[in-house]
Amino acid sequence: MALHFFIGLGALVSPLVVDPFLAEDSCVLSANWTANSSSSDLEHLRNTLAGHGSALHNTSQYPLYTEGIVITRVSYAFWIMAIINLPVPVAVLVLMFHERLVSCSKSSPPLLEKEPNISSSPARDDGQGHGGVFDCCRRNNLRGHPATFFIIHALGGAIVFITDGIIGCYAGFVYTYAVSPPLLMGHKTAGCLDSVFWASVTAGRLSFIFFSSRYTAPILLTISLAGVILVQCLLLIFYTSHVFLFIGTSVLGLSVSSVFPSILAFTEDILDYKGCATTVLVTSASTGEMALQLLVGSVINSKGSYSFLLCTTITSFISFCLFQLLLYTHRVHRNHQTGHSKLNCERRGSFG
User: Fold this and answer.
1) Which of 89, 116, 135 is the last residue in one of the domains?
2) Are 282 and 267 in contact (CB under 8 A)?
3) Using CA atoms, how far apart are residues 128 and 143, in angstroms rounded to an integer?
4) Which of 164, 181, 201, 329 has its CA at a distance of 20 to 30 angstroms from the CA of residue 345?
């Protein structure tokens, strides 16, 4: 949970670092720009950037000068972020030198050979612990597992696919939704929504470090997923309220923030930490954040900005249903494991 807190913290800090270097108006001052210089093409591009339904309001606020004096200093923000991230690889290199993991001569063994060879130890036979990247896909490791073992992986991956996709969609399109009809929020005000969302995600992950030590993962996941559905339904109802959009953004960030770390802990607990669970969940989360943004962006482009909330609400309902199915599969898997353990004990007793 602490690692995911710092992910949210980085996403919160980055827009705040960039904001002072953004120009309030156009990034380029016009230099003898005439109306005959591809005005029709620029007008089409302006309407495209303004989004669906831009004909309902004045699009001249989006000047598209292509030649002139560049007045933005946004490159400074990238240099600042690079300098902030520089201590990380430096610290890793220092740690590697301290642990003598960096070969100083060609005769030194490579990094992976410095560790004891544990790939053939008996502890590896049950699929627990850390091994090769594709160890979990070997036939010997897959053999003997019940069907519920694979269903749990699939359901956990599907849940984080949707919830991390919701995070990516909301962070990516809430600005577009705010500046489009019927809200028509100011650009500076709408730009704060993304920071508010990531601030609530960061605060939610920090607070769930405390809650995770007192409540079980199923309880936290039930509250989080129910909260995501509830706040998005309210956003659909009060879709014309500027104030409630900020409130809903905050609550949504708090609700969805702990789903991934909680589902990761819950799934690994069910499977008694099988290495494949982490691989499947992390891959599914990254894929969902990519795929759902592409899907929702296409729907927004064809149906309008209101479909953005409708899409995320529908996917939230799907994720909650999948979580209920995961709880049922967990119960079946636990009963199977209990029955299998009793059968082994009876066999040992009969041979004893």
Assistant:
1) 89
2) no
3) 14
4) 329
